[in-house]
Amino acid sequence: MSHPPILSLRSVSKSFAVDDTRFHALTDVDLEIAENEIVALIGPSGCGKSTLLRSVAGLEQPDDGSIRIAGQPVTRAGQESAVVFQDHRLLPWLSLRGNVELALEPLGLSATERRRRAAACIDLVGLTQFADSFPRQLSGGMAQRAAIARALVVETRLVLMDEPFGALDSILRSRMQEELLKIWQRHRVSILIVTHDIEEALYLADRVVVMRAQPGHIHEIVPIDLPRPRRRDSAAFSELRGRLLRGLATQDHEVAA
Amino acid sequence: MSEITLKGLALPAGIVALWALASGLGLLNGPMAVSPAQVLAVPFADPDGRELWAGIGASLLRLVAGATIGGLAGMATGLALALIRPLGTAFSPTINALRQIALFAWIPLLTSWFGNTETAKITFIALATFFPLVFATEQGVREVPASLREVARVLNLSRRRQISALYLPGALPAIAVGVQIALISSWIGTVGAEYAIGNGRGLGGYIANARDQFRMDIAIVGVAALALIGVFLQAASARLIRHLDKGN
Ligand SMILES: Nc1ncnc2c1ncn2[C@@H]1O[C@H](COP(=O)(O)OP(=O)(O)OP(=O)(O)O)[C@@H](O)[C@H]1O
Ligand SMILES: [Mg+2]
């Protein structure tokens, strides 16, 4: 990490008011993501993964601590980052192309330039044939890929993804993981990805952040020093899978105890 | 659909048949008794009755002018009430209260402000369109899902683009229902205003003249035209709504 980090969180806390009490979704979270790094967030449901991601996206305002993207404090939504939500959230009344071009409008490009960049990104996710289709005409997987194109087309240096492949079947899911790595290699972006799937985290990430609940916090950060392309059946892969599983499982005992 | 139309026509057709029978047998007497044949000839042969077409034209023009003004103002107001929270809390109750005023109760107010003028009529029609559209738009915009609002925010869309690319298209189905309600109330408002305020061409004026001259045949033609155009507007807007629903 010789370069300054693209993202840095310093003792970030966030609580929600729930029936006259405060529910602590995040306490004292410290995390840095380097340029061109992929970091995966895993942890049990309700441990604050989405809350963390949404805070970086500027959709939640932390109570405490600081979040900086490329050195700048996050003060508004969509600052220097692009977001892929778990559901595709395409605007139903715009075609796939219209949805992707809409993301480019704030950049003040010419219409031709917008069209060119949108077409290139739609091609990247393999949907050129469907560029003029409307979201309701796309399958779930296609719509999700369209949402990824919409996030990538603005070419922000940081891409935030909240269980982006959660709705896909396992074959499509592993194909999308490969496509994402290709895009990442070509565009040199940094990616923060939330996932429920340990294998997905191991396949994609340079580091895996294991979170725990009550209150939501970072339990450990596991570096994944496996060369790419990674083989899911390699010994090193299964050893790391075992380690992450244990990291996740211990908590259940603690909670049960 | 055609079956429904046919069933709907059965009752009026029966009444006309009875009416034709009654006047054919000489059961109807006096200056107010007219035969269906007489009424049918009115829009074409009668020198006063022929004014119907010009009247319909004038009324429809007035409807378009008033409904456009009121509709656009209504949509803008609904949008502002839904998107600017302090405006919503400050003005929604007032507008809701004004809406409770029966439409025709505005006529004395408007004529005392504007006199028996075209301005009074257009304002009245605009009011008839305004209220349904304020509420349809406000409700439609409020119902745009929070998930899509977040998308607009993370995409850094300008306020203007949020309105044109998110809120208005999102509210469109609700607005279309508002337009359907507004069209009927503004059409009745148009003819009502012409009838009550008098002077100037229009279907309402046509009916009012028929009343003044004791011309039952012309009055019947005017009322039938009023109803038929209302049915047509209703059908046209229902069709528009079906088309929009298919699109989403
Ligand atoms: N707006 C909110 N108001 C109240 N509580 C909230 C709000 N948003 C999140 N929470 C709570 O904060 C906790 C963390 O939520 P979060 O969505 O970040 O979990 P998560 O780790 O993403 O879970 P999952 O894996 O199920 O998506 C949860 O207990 C949730 O109920
Ligand atoms: Mg979540």
Structure, described:
With 257 residues, chain A is an alpha/beta fold. Helix content of chain A is 35%, strand content 25%. Chain A contains 7 helices and 10 strands. Chain A has helices at residues 49-56, 96-104, 111-124, 140-152, 170-187, 198-204, 235-256; strands at 7-18, 21-33, 38-42, 64-69, 72-73, 81-84, 158-162, 190-194, 207-212, 217-223. In chain A, the strands form 2 sheets. A 6-stranded mixed beta sheet of chain A has the order 6-7-8-3-9-10, sandwiched between helices. In chain A, helix 5 links the parallel strand 7 and strand 8 (190-194). Chain A is globular. Chain B starts with a helix and ends with a helix. Chain B is elongated. In chain B, helix 2 (36-45) packs across helix 10 and helix 3 packs antiparallel against helix 4. The longest helix of chain B has 39 residues, at 159-197. Chain A binds chain B through residues 57-59, 77-78, 81-83, 85, 87, 89, 91-94, 102-103, 105-106, 136, 150, and chain B through 147-148, 150-151, 153-158, 161, 165-166, 169-170, 172, 247-248. The structure holds adenosine-5'-triphosphate and magnesium ion. Adenosine-5'-triphosphate binds at residues 16, 18, 23, 25, 43, 45-51, 216 of chain A.
**For the report, how would you describe the main beta sheet of chain B?**
none
Q: Please count the beta strands of chain A (DSSP E, at least 2 residues each).
A: 10
Estimated share of beta-strand residues of chain A: 25-35%
Oligomer, anyone? heterodimer
Broad shape of chain A: globular
Average pLDDT of chain B works out at 87
Q: Which superfamily, in CATH terms, is the homologous superfamily of the largest domain in chain A?
A: P-loop containing nucleotide triphosphate hydrolases
Enumerate the strands of the largest sheet of chain A in spatial order, edge to edge or round the barrel: 6-7-8-3-9-10
Summarize the helices and strands and which ones pair or pack.
The complex is a heterodimer of chains A (257) and B (248).
Chain A: E1 7-18, E2 21-33, E3 38-42, H1 49-56, E4 64-69, E5 72-73, E6 81-84, H2 96-104, H3 111-124, H4 140-152, E7 158-162, H5 170-187, E8 190-194, H6 198-204, E9 207-212, E10 217-223, H7 235-256
Parallel strand pairs in A: 3-8, 3-9, 6-7, 7-8
Antiparallel strand pairs in A: 1-2, 1-4, 4-5, 9-10
Helix pairs in contact in A: 2-3, 2-4, 3-4
Chain B: H1 2-24, H2 36-45, H3 51-83, H4 85-99, H5 106-114, H6 118-142, H7 146-154, H8 159-197, H9 203-212, H10 216-247
Bound molecules: adenosine-5'-triphosphate (ATP) and magnesium ion.
